[in-house]
Specification:
9 helices, six-stranded antiparallel sheet, ATP binding, membrane, CysA_C, binds adenosine-5'-triphosphate, translocase, ATP hydrolysis activity, Rossmann fold, alpha+beta
């Protein structure tokens, strides 16, 4: 385990930013701290870095206690959202900076520094910009240089705080896949903070979902997406429809439709109210409802966006709005239009019964 966070708490006045939080981060992996604004992600990152002191708890790197180590002794590299490069220095000088300011006995000679900087610039695919100044680079290029600068001092741990947060959507998407490929090359233990679930799912080896200073769930992107531990995680990881249903004798009922048998193990959940969550791409639409498993609804909005047709429907029983995404092929078969009365089927529903008891219900 390369980074171990044990029982960290941090208050700002009366506000609890981190609440007895513990976490272990595997070596060589890229871990995303994901959570809504104010959930404590940046505070945790700053405490790991040594930029902020916890009220209690312990931080270890590779088995060594770092809690009282100064930031300069921890061997961390940073990239921040607005970590401006030195404007008056060229790209080369910016990346070389951390090496040039090392104490004399640790400082590499000039030729070694030049070789290293050029290698790093090639690694971030900006070798040709060595003589330019930051003002002559795009925002995305500047962040790549900031990353090269952070890597120059060979940190043990790389910390990135919303590194692409200030960039536009297209550049952001490019840098995401670039960061993923880069990490596959360097395998440095890295933590990056984001509130963008897509970014976390696409880039990270592990995701830590945070809420109100605590960890809600941690695991691989697939595990967290496929098996969210609770409604908070489920809702946070993407668009979702919520239905109120009832489990009766092991069957899930939603708006007079018999959705089918549930596999909920807990006895209390066998006859109870249930919150039913379904993602838009798991909502299926049919024109007929012979087995009464569909919820009656009317199409109120329809628009095709690239390969997906987005629909909004309103259920006839409760008036609840439902978002559905159909593949174009599926849409072509039944060609529904606005105003049509159809049936909504819930696939891969996550059923959370009252009192936090929950089950996974899959047709
Ligand atoms: N120095 C400080 N003084 C007072 N309150 C602070 C300080 N730093 C953070 N906070 C508060 O602690 C809470 C957690 O902040 P933090 O920046 O860790 O959240 P975050 O999850 O990174 O959110 P965001 O995505 O908005 O940056 C916030 O409510 C913030 O206002």
């Amino acid at each position: 385990m390369s980074i171990r966070v044990t029982s960290i708490s941090k208050k700002f006045h009366d506000f609890v930013a981190l609440d007895n939080l513990s976490l272990e981060l595997p070596e060589g992996q890229l871990t995303a701290l994901l959570g809504p604004s104010g959930s404590g992600k940046t505070t945790l990152l700053r405490i790991i870095a040594g930029l902020e002191l916890p009220d209690s708890g312990q931080i270890e790197f590779f088995g060594q206690d770092q809690t009282n180590q100064h930031v300069s002794q921890r061997g961390v590299g940073f990239v921040f959202q607005h970590y401006a490069l030195f404007k008056h220095m060229s790209v080369f000088e910016n990346v070389a900076y951390g090496l040039k300011v090392k104490p004399r006995h640790e400082r590499p000679d000039k030729a070694t520094i030049r070789k290293k900087v050029m290698e790093l610039l090639d690694l971030v695919q900006l070798g040709s910009t060595a003589d330019r100044y930051p003002a002559q680079l795009s925002g995305g290029q500047r962040q790549r240089i900031a990353l090269a600068r952070a890597l120059a001092v060979e940190p043990r741990v790389l910390l990135l705080d919303e590194p692409f947060g200030a960039l536009d959507a297209k550049v952001r998407a490019e840098l995401r896949s670039w960061l993923r490929r880069l990490h596959d090359e360097i395998h440095l233990t890295s933590i990056f903070v984001t509130h963008d679930q897509e970014e976390a799912l696409e880039v990270a080896d592990r995701i830590v979902v945070m809420n109100q200073g605590k960890v809600e769930q941690e695991g691989s992107p697939d595990a967290v997406y496929e098996n969210p531990a609770n409604p908070f995680v489920y809702q946070f990881l993407g668009n979702v429809n919520l239905f109120h249903g009832r489990v009766r004798s092991g069957h899930l009922e939603v708006e007079q439709a018999d959705i089918g048998p549930t596999d909920m193990e807990n006895a209390r959940a066998q006859d109870d109210e249930a919150a039913v969550y379904v993602r838009p791409h798991d909502v299926e639409i049919t024109l007929q409802n012979p087995d009464h498993t569909g919820i009656e609804a009317r199409i109120t909005y329809l628009r095709s966006v690239g390969p997906v047709v987005r629909l909004e429907l309103q259920t006839l029983h409760s008036g609840r709005l439902v978002e559905a995404h159909m593949g174009r092929e599926a849409w072509r078969i039944i060609k529904p239009v606005v105003g049509d009365r159809v049936f909504v089927h819930l696939r891969n529903a996550q059923v959370y019964a009252k009192e936090g008891v929950w089950g996974d219900y899959v047709i």
